[in-house]
Amino acid sequence: MGEFVCTTQDQLRFLLQGYSINLDIFCSKYCSDTLGNQLENFAAIKTNTMSLNMNCNCARVRSMLLDGEKPECCINGNYKQVQRRRGLCRCVDSNGVQIEKEVDCTHVNQLSCFNMTCHSE
């Protein structure tokens, strides 16, 4: 996972044009590989709660899979709590491990994690 990356002062001057705003909105954290390269577009703005508990577990797994079905990730690179595969849906923890019995996706609303979208732990 990368550190917070902020917009340069030149870019800020252009964007702000005399307005007084919180500069943290120009900082974001992104998921990266071991060389620091961003993984897909997984990132979160510093002031967004999604950046507080980023673990990028899902983004890392996606980057290792060449073909086939890949896990569904939140915008910050964490796992979405409901994962779908071959017509079946299941709840997963923040590491992508299945935590309850899977159901046919037509009954996804029966899952305990149905109303939750992204892990915040």
UniProtKB/TrEMBL annotation:
Which residue range or ranges hold the Thyroglobulin type-1 domain?
Answer: 55-113
Task: Extract the SUPFAM superfamilies matched here.
Answer: Thyroglobulin type-1 domain (SSF57610)
In Swiss-Prot or TrEMBL terms, this protein is called Thyroglobulin type-1 domain-containing protein
Source organism (scientific name)? Pyrocoelia pectoralis
Q: Which UniProt keywords apply?
A: Disulfide bond
Alphabetized Pfam families for the sequence? Thyroglobulin_1
> Residues of the signal sequence?
none
Classify the source by domain of life. Eukaryota
